[in-house]
Structure formats: C-alpha cells, structure tokens
Amino acid sequence: MGLINPNDYFNDTGVAAELFNPSFGIYPVISGNIPYTPTYPYSSLGVMAAYTLGETTLQAGVFNADGYTDLRTPWGGEGQIYYGEIDENLALASGKLTLKAGGYYDHVSSDYLRNAIAIGPAPSQGGFYGTAEYRWKSANGEDWGAFVQAGAAPNSASTSPINAYVGAGLRLRDFLPASPKSTLSLGFARAWQRQAGAETSVEVNWYQPVFHHFYIQPDLQYVINPGASAPGNTLANALVGILRVGWRGSLWG
What we know:
The protein is mostly beta strands. It has a single domain, classed as Porin, CATH 2.40.160. It is built from two helices and twelve strands. The longest helix is centred in the middle third of the chain and has 5 residues. The chain starts with a strand and ends in a 6-residue tail after the last strand.
C-alpha cells in the first residue's frame, strides 16, 4: 500500500531492462491507449497483494487511474486501474523459463480524465498481456537471456487506437571477459494501430561499466513508420542514436 508504480510489478520484463524503447517496459496497448496511466516516473496511490506457492505467484492490485495529478482528488476520485497476473517459473534444459500472463482494466469515473485535457479522450477500457523470459548460461559462463512479449486491447478503435503489440529480444551479459556486467541487448518491437498501420523498431544497446559505479550506454534504434500512420500518410523512417552516461551507487554505505 502506498505510492506505487504498477509497472514495477505487472507486465514487466527483466531481460529487457537495458533497452531504451519504452515499449519493452510498459506495453503500448496500455501506455499508448490510457492517458495519465500511472507508470514511471508517475506513481499513484494503490494497494496490491501477492501469494506465492512453489514456483507460482498470483498477484493483483488496484491503483488510482490518474498517475500525473495523483493527489488532486481523494483516492479513487478519478477512477481506478486494476491489474491481475499469474507468474510461473519452470526449469527448462540448462536454464530457467518464466511465464507471465495478466490483464488490466482502467475504469474512468471523472470528467477530468474522461476529457483528458490536451491529450485526448480517456474512456474506460481493458486488455491482456503475456511475457516469456528464458535465462541460461553458456559453457564458457556467458549469461544469456531471451524474451517474447505480446499485448492486446480488444476494444473499439475510438477507445483503444493501439490494438496489438509484440516484442522480442536477446541479452548477453558479461560478454567482455575483462569487463564484468558488460551487457549487449537486442530488441524488436511492433505495435499496430487500428484503421492505420504499424510502427516497427529495432534496437541494439550496449551497457558498459567504466570505473567505480560510472557507466556509458550507447543505444541505436531504427524506427519504421513512426507513429504507425496509414499508407500514404507515413513519416520517413528514423535512425536514432542515444548515449547515456550514468552513475549507479549509494551516497552512504
């Protein structure tokens, strides 16, 4: 209970954590269809619970639907977003397979969110998602990971413009023997927009520790049909380069 980012617990993919494209984090059937939905960096007041039995975890949560101006009204005054998910861990060959399946429903109960000033309509809506992650080590000790993601919003075009999403990728950690935690990630994402087209992106990311807790992280993305426009109204494909420089650590201890 408290200020919670639901994406820290629901529809998350650990193997894809280093990739910059936000679709690998919170699926676009949620972030692209639901204005104001709580996600990083906007948490919202909520409560959740989880129960684990063996390798199976069931979890559910309800959160304020407005993550941007969360304290503007009492909890639930704008509406609520509900999540439910089941996770299963399985041993497979020499690695570990994690399967996740869940659903969400965003209930809007105020004109403030329903009108969604300067953003567009925010009607009540729901959908489903699933994730598979596989982690294994090679014979020479390399730490591999692979993932597949999918999401669907089976609503009308006016309610959920983005109706489907798929993503997949690979991660290789410690790929430079002399540099522990060096990580190379590759990702593919495609989102479909009803009555329009689909946006496709390919991304390669390199996380490289430098010294102490400092790191550099170059990232290259190629985006096909940005904005998922319909044929005849498309934007030019885009090549995007990003360089992140950061520090991970604690000021104390």
